Here is the input.
Amino acid sequence: MIVMIVGAMLIYGTLDMPKWADPNAPAALHVSPRYIEKTLEETATPNVVTSVLADYRGYDTLGETSVIFTAGISCILLLRKKKRENSGGR
Amino acid sequence: MLDFIISKYNYWMYIILMMLGFYGMIAKKNLIKKVIGMNIFQTAIILFFISTAAKRGATIPIVEHGHGEAVHAIHAIEYVNPLPHVLMLTAIVVMVSTLGVALAILIMIYRRYNTLEEDEILQVKGK
Amino acid sequence: MERIISNSPVLIVVIPLISAFLTLVIGLWKKRLCYPLVIIALSLSVLSSIIMLNTVISKGTIHYYLGNWDPPWGIEYVVDHFNAFIAIIVSFMSLFAAIYAKRSVEQELPEKIVYFYTIFLLLVTGLFGIIVTGDMFNLYVFVEISSLAGYALIAVGGGRAPLASFKYVVMGTIGACFYLIGLGYLYIVTGSLNMGDLRILLPPLYASRVVQTAFVFILIGFGIKIALFPLHTWQPDAYTYAPSVVSVIISTAMAKTFIYALIRLIFSVFTVDFVRLFVPIFDIICWISAIAMIFGSIYAIKQFNLKRMLAYSSIANVGYIVLGIGLSTSTTLGLTPALMHILNHAVMKGCMFMTACAFIYKAGLRDIRDFVGLGRRMPYTCFAFILAALAMIGMPPSVGFVTKWYLIIAALEAGKYIFVAVIFFSTLLMIVYFWNVIEIMYIRPAEKMVGDESRLLTPELTDGGQVRNEIKVDEGPVSMLIPGLVLALLCFVIGIAWISGILSPILKGVNSTFGLGVVS
Here is the structure.
């Protein structure tokens, strides 16, 4: 029931969206052209996805690395079993 | 009307997929099914974002160049929008990490209660 | 020195992050060194947040471009009055929680201390990242860092903690994904991810259904995270079964940070004009918060477990803050009551959770009915509890009184008298449940001891925290006692500070940044 309401809200929201694969959509016109056009001058990387991920938005990649670090240490924290009594202290 | 549906159907498909995952997360009683629903929900969001990056007649966002040659002019309209792809790379990593932590918690629950049905766990008193 | 000051928005995030990594490495090498490292890292964060507040008050908003790329092509950190204020709250509360943590973690999790402190520092990193960022997707990444750390920290408590944490995992992920959906909708129609840029780009699009749907989804997403009324079901279990330090830090720092994120998104991205156009939404928020206030207090009365009672009381207090948000466009006070209650509730609830967990640490007492005669045996801890309880009820000149006063003025100015009645009624309910505890602690005489309650009676009574013999119940250890007492005293000191107007430059700064405080 809740699912229907949420789905209906989402579809209601799409009614005003730009069409699929429209080259003139605002999403493609505002920020992205600079990434594509200047990537060779500013970052010397032909792969635009890499240059955005590592250069223009490199800080997000740092955050993502921290997420992996957090998840890894969380799994160790959660899953480690008690050592048995006769093993040496660490 | 038909034009309307054709221009937007990509969004609707992904919204239906999201709702399937969401239903699984909230309506199912088995904890593993909840985790699977969570995974479907997050994957559908990622696909939704990526579908907004497409452009008709455009190619992948890797600019061809040659070392030291004169580079021809780069038009942004020929390349697919790279920004959602970038955001979704991070989102995929976040999704996998959340899945990992959720499954670690499920292992802890299983070790303690020996079952993964929510009803049975709630009936065990005081453990 | 100049470099440090100008880089302080980034330092406040990076110091805990690097310290988390160093704690892991150093802790695995020598376990004793990781705790001082945590304290040093958090003290440096406190220092950076004070530097940030100073810079903002003297020079205005700080804009910091990461990697020197201009926004909206690069990521930007924006620190204005609101940010600096919340950063100070979070850094001080995390420092107090860390000071408090030493003995409690050693008792509850003896073999996992190093990992615990690592995840604790990562939680604080995530919170600071949320506070200073000016970019929407960066906000999502740091929300996930702090959420993952939170899930792990809650799940290591004993007993039913894994199940409580799993419920929180499912609901928290729904919340974060709703925020991501809202963010995606906004990106589709504007193409930008920067908060300042969206503020400029959105006004022509206010009538579009995409923006309205995005607003609703972002509201619901963060509403789940802050445990606003109908979406609160994860909170009581999570606060009750978490380890002691974790209850302190998530009820004060984490909840306040998500409330900050909600306010920032409502008022900086969708500005006040949008809210006025999209008229009924703030009225709905006010009604939901009123129901939260009453519902939280009624459920708190029925609880016997002290931490569970405090968790329901937190739900009620989040109702107060959201009521302050809901009333902010209709009064001249703007966001003042909401901001006050963010600071005040952090201080009061931090103190109460610290004392409640001191009871558990010393004597294993969770149930209120077992607290008989505790007032004589742990005098300082109970005194701190009483001060905090008085503050929450709203005795002048404590902080609780100040925020209720301002909320009542705001409700009167807005002309919505029903909310004044709701505030009074919920205060009455709060008096009921706190009096329950205080009565049992101090007034009810010890009945005949049955079973294992006799171990609580000691042949000798002590008078402070320095006695170290095998008495089962005496005053709590000093390192747990001092943060609790400091916070309890701060409840009253900060109340006097609010009344005397020392902190009003911050409030004026916030209201002017958001364009509030002017009644249409």
